[in-house]
Amino acid sequence: MKTILRKFAVKGEIGEIIPIESGHINHSYHAVNLDPTAPDYFLQRINKEVFQNIPGLTNNVVKVVDAMLREQKKTANPQKAGFFPQPVQTHDKQYYQVDKLGNFWRVFTYIKNSRTYDIAEYEDLAMEGGKAVGKFQKYMLNVDPKGLHLTIPRFHDLDFRLDNFDSALKSASKSRKEEAAEVIDFVLERRDAMKNYFRKLHSGNIPLRVTHNDTKFNNILFDEHDFAICMIDLDTVMPGFIHYDFGDAIRVLCNTAAEDEADQSKIQFDPELFRSFAFGYSVYAKEFLTKEEIALIPLSPWLMTYIIAVRFLTDYLENDRYYKIHYPAHNLVRAKAQMSYIKQMDLYYEEINNCIAEYFGS
Question: Mean pLDDT over residues 150-165, rounded?
């Protein structure tokens, strides 16, 4: 690890290097600096199986960080500009290093005393999370989405996911189809409504923007006082619609249970966390969103939860080829959990619509 770090223009003297266990794709480490005047560092080995165009991925991250820095310098507190993880160049002025085994490594500054949360433990924390997502989208307004590389093509493409589901359903074993009959019926019942919503996003009336695309709560960095610093894990930043970010955040944030909870009675929708997040999001987002975008915000959690349900179900029908599982029916349990969460959101449909109308004045 220290050999790799020496390839980068790091300051001070690196001491302990601590593995970071969170995250399912890249291998990450916290490099502690023995020099109190120098920063700690975040060292990461990029998963080249998932991200096959690492130069393109790196180009995206650098563009996004540059935009964040420019926007921070315009704020009322410009001395805080740069108070977020920033990529560190190698001595050859590159942003990644390839080792002898062909592994790709990168380094970011590490923000001391910062923290992440897997869940929003109280409403003000959810509000700060909403602010972080809204601020990120605002900061990206001057970044051309067409200038970004598609790090994961068709990531939130419902038509693509349903085509994969159709193929899996045709070739699945009889036993798996019987076990998954309830969720298969649910996916088919909701199919037309979700496709209709997806078509509205692609109607040409909704602007393509730079979006994060993976807004689960632990991708928000907080300071020691629980104020949001910024969005992190920028590998999925691509062209998209703001509804992907809002919907995916609510999919995780407002669910009272884990996404693989087997006891469906534990899966509830938390309306107070929704209100807090939506208000925080509106603080920045209402400055730039169009009326057409606002009109489609309420149903975005249904879309993003439906997409992940289809993906879990498809993987189960294909004998678990993509997601890591811990027991044979794990993907089926995940799909059922998403189905239950959608049904819980159904109960709050009117309240969610009214909340968005209240906060966005529409």
Answer: 95
Amino acid 50: pLDDT: 78
Distance between CA atoms of residues 154 and 10, nearest Å: 36
**CA neighbor of 15 nearest in space, from 32, 30, 37:** 32
Chain length of the chain: 362
**Dist CA 158 CA 164 (whole Å):** 10
Given pLDDT bands bounded at 50, 70 and 90, which one contains residue 1? confident
Residues 6+ apart with CB under 8 A from 70: 142
Tokens for 350?
A: 């009117």
Residue range 72-122, pLDDT digits in tens: 888 767 666 678 899 999 999 999 999 999 999 999 999 988 999 988 999
User: How many angstroms separate the CA atoms of 144 and 208, rounded?
Assistant: 9
- Full DSSP string of 138-164: HHGGGS-GGGS--SSTTTT-HHHHHHH
Question: In this structure, what are the phi and psi dihedrals at residue 143, rounded to the nearest 5 degrees?
Answer: -100, 125
Residue 179 clears pLDDT 70, i.e. is over it: yes
Contact 216, 305 (CB under 8 A): no
